[in-house]
Amino acid sequence: MVSFQEFKDCDIRIAKVVQADEIPDSKSLITLKIDAGDDHLHTIITAIKSSYTAKDLLGTFILVALNLKLKNLESEGILLAIEAEDGGVLLRPDPKYLDKIKPGMKLA
Which DSSP category does 14 fall into? Predict the structure, then answer.
């Protein structure tokens, strides 16, 4: 079990997808460049291609965790999604509040 402090230490924030590219010859991988509200674009490699195309993700807001220790050094974090019966479903902000959301806002 993860302690509350360990959970609080996770850098979970909202990010905007500014570039999305499907990885050729991969059934599941998409590379994302995201604006997470700091001074550089983060690269996220995600296995969500069975549910979303790169075009679906471009310009959208997603939840990401950025300070995790990952085995795959090419990815600077992970996007948050739930595993559904036929693929992943992204966790996203409520559309009626999109005008109040900015990249980099942290999970409250």
Answer: E
- 41: domain CATH number is 2.40.50.140
Q: How far apart are the first and last CA of the chain?
A: 21
Alpha-helix runs per DSSP H in the chain: 4-9, 54-57
Supply the pLDDT for residue 97. 93
Written as one letter, the residue type at 45 is I
Does residue 69 have a pLDDT over 90? no
* Count: domains in the chain: 1
Whether 106 is in a domain gets the answer no
**SS3 category, 95:** helix
The encoded tokens of residue 10 equal 């996770």
The DSSP call for residue 22 is E
Q: Given pLDDT bands bounded at 50, 70 and 90, which one contains residue 72?
A: low
